[in-house]
Hints:
Layout: H1 10-19, H2 23-29, H3 42-45, H4 56-68, E1 72-77, E2 83-86, H5 92-103, H6 111-114, H7 116-137, H8 144-153, H9 160-176, H10 185-196, E3 218-219, E4 225-227, H11 235-246, H12 257-271, H13 278-292, H14 303-309, H15 311-323, H16 329-365, H17 372-383, E5 389-390, H18 391-398, H19 402-414, E6 418-423, E7 426-431, H20 435-441
Antiparallel strand pairs: 1-2, 3-4, 5-7, 6-7
Amino acid sequence: xxxxxSPPDWRxxxxxxxxxxxxxxxxxxxxxxxxKGAYLHWDKLRHLQPPEDLSLDEWWLALxxxxxxxxxxIPLQDTQERTFSFLLPxxxxxxxxxxxxxxxxxxxxxxxxxxxxxxxxxxxNSLIEESITSSQLEGAVTTREIAKGMIRSGRxxxxxxxxxxxxxxxxxxxxxxxxxxxxxxxxxCEIQKRVTTDTLDDPTAAGRIxxxxxxIDVADLYDEVFHNPxxxxxLEQRMQAMCDFANGKTPDSFVHPIIRAILLHFWLAYDxxxxxxxxxxxxxxxxxxxxxNDYWICEFISISQIIRRAPTQYYRxxxxxxxxxxxxxxxxxxxxxxxxKAVEELxxxxxxxxxxxxxxxxxxxxxxxxxxxxxxxxxxxxxxxxETFTIESHRVSHNVVHQTARTDLQSLAESGLLxxxxxxxxxxxxxxxxxxxxxxxxxxxxx
Length: 447
């Protein structure tokens, strides 16, 4: 990836326009932080035509002055003790409003997710997807089918790539249980330990911050260095400052919870406190922060899946921030776009699955060789895949004799739609695994 061009120093430009008495004209021509709704970095702006009679340098200065006047500082500094900041230009307020309505609180959503019977299935699907793509961003190489098979079957990992994915899956499960706990340095180290267990050349690097002799640089495949993290001597103090920010102790001004979660992602990635596993840990802490602030639908989305489709844009948002006076707005804009896309895909997936279930129920009603009692039971099994049925419960539900109920259930078991198990002296029937797939393939044996 090509390093973006750093902008000219706005302070030097400011002195020049003051000498030329051009400052009032700049304020008159440019009165906001963006251009046509786009928050531009110098690397893009330098290719555009400036407004009216401004030079490129003057246009950039005017934008910077507008940005500097409304920026919010956070307690994160770079290695030169320069403070990071952000602002909320359009469309950020609108996006935050949309996400507040769609991701947290008492948001209304299909009972496919809110139902206790189907909720876990959606959570597991999202955890698997996030664990796979987050690991692939860090170099894991395997297919989705193999990775999903490993997680669902419970078999042990066969190589480092599979171990990375398995670690991520278990860590994301762990994060779900931490949403009501404050973030601490020891907890961050525990998260890193979980994502790196049995994947490091140096096993002692799991669960601890890097030592002075473990200086690392962030580089691309061609060894071009893009980032020099802070020295290890500062990491303990910096991690505590990050936890104070995560727990809402700093700053004194309000920071929207979604913005705070995004900034935590950046903060850990910037500090790179570990020898390995920093990216996966940063994304895990983002999830912790979102869940900690009651954005519960984040249990069901995968940001890494979206990031992996355009990784260059993800990494460029880091570089835009670092090369433009530590302006975090670039990273915020990109990350908000990722969240919005992940949420849109979740809702589309839910709508698709709801429609598929509706069509399957319609198909069940048209299967002549199933009687009305069997059709009712299979329709319920689709909506409640964890429910169990017994001959007695079926008999009572439909007010039939024992033999009729027994014949109904045994026939469904013989068709592969129910699994039958004997518990003591009682036969118990459960919806078969992959019931939806079996129903799609179901054919009338009389035809």
